[in-house]
Structure formats: structure tokens, C-alpha cells
């Protein structure tokens, strides 16, 4: 007759400290996942970061605050202090390279 539905939620700490966060908006140039490091493409749209090619510097602009599909509004954090293990890191991207790129724009990973 009736079934009891069970759900499980394991919260993930994302914010790591009191350093002020500064959100910004843009248009997604590709599908974005929540807490994914993002960059801007040539058209100024927000895209996931990619592994640097031939040692080129990573052009990181922030961390996606929420998931978004291509051509939808996207919100991302330009500054703040976050836990590194909470980030959605794309394949081929090294967390150490992200730390250096993030420090330049006042995003700090713990």
C-alpha cells in the first residue's frame, strides 16, 4: 500500500573561511557543473577550465556557483576561500596548477 522512501544526503563543505566571496554573472559557453573551476572563451562566455597546453598559463576566472547549460546565465565566484576537495576538477587538470592560478585572482584553496 504505502512505501517509505529513504534518501541519503551527505553535505559537502565548500566555503573554507571568512575571506569575502564576490559573485559575478555571465553566459555559459558550455555545460558547467556546480563548483567547477571556470575560464572565459574568446567570446567572453564562461567555460570549464582545461589542462594548459604546452605549459601555457591557465586563464582561470573563478568557480561556478551553480550548474548551468550552454547559453544559460552562469554565476561564478571571483574571490573566496574554498575547500579543494569540494571542487569538481575536470580530467587532466592538476589541483596544484589551479592553486597557483587561483591565488592570482584571490581565490584560496585549503
**Main beta sheet, described?**
5 strands, antiparallel
Task: Note the gap between the termini.
Answer: 49 Å
What is the helix fraction of residues, given as a range? under 10%
**In percent terms, what proportion of residues is strand?**
25-35%
Work out the helix count. 1
Keywords:
mainly beta, five-stranded antiparallel β-sheet, two-stranded parallel ribbon, 1 helix, 8% helix
Description:
There is one protein chain. The chain is mainly β. It has one helix and seven strands, in the order E-E-E-E-E-E-H-E. It has one helix at residues 95-103, and strands at residues 23-27, 37-40, 46-48, 60-64, 73-77, 80-82, 107-109. The strands form two sheets. The protein has a five-stranded antiparallel β-sheet with strand order 1-5-4-2-3, covered by helices on one side. It starts with 22 loop residues before the first strand and ends with a strand.
Q: What layout of secondary structure does this protein have?
A:
Layout: E1 23-27, E2 37-40, E3 46-48, E4 60-64, E5 73-77, E6 80-82, H1 95-103, E7 107-109
Parallel strand pairs: 6-7
Antiparallel strand pairs: 1-5, 2-3, 2-4, 4-5
Amino acid at each position: 500500500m504505502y512505501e517509505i522512501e529513504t534518501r541519503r544526503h551527505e553535505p559537502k563543505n565548500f566555503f573554507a573561511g571568512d575571506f569575502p566571496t564576490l559573485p559575478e554573472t555571465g553566459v555559459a559557453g558550455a555545460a558547467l557543473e556546480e563548483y567547477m573551476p571556470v575560464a572565459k572563451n574568446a567570446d567572453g562566455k564562461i567555460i570549464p577550465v582545461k589542462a594548459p597546453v604546452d605549459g601555457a598559463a591557465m586563464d582561470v576566472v573563478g568557480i561556478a556557483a551553480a550548474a548551468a547549460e550552454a547559453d544559460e546565465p552562469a554565476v561564478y565566484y571571483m574571490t573566496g576561500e574554498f575547500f579543494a576537495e569540494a571542487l569538481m576538477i575536470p580530467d587532466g587538470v592538476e589541483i596544484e596548477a589551479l592553486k597557483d592560478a587561483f591565488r592570482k585572482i584571490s581565490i584560496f584553496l585549503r
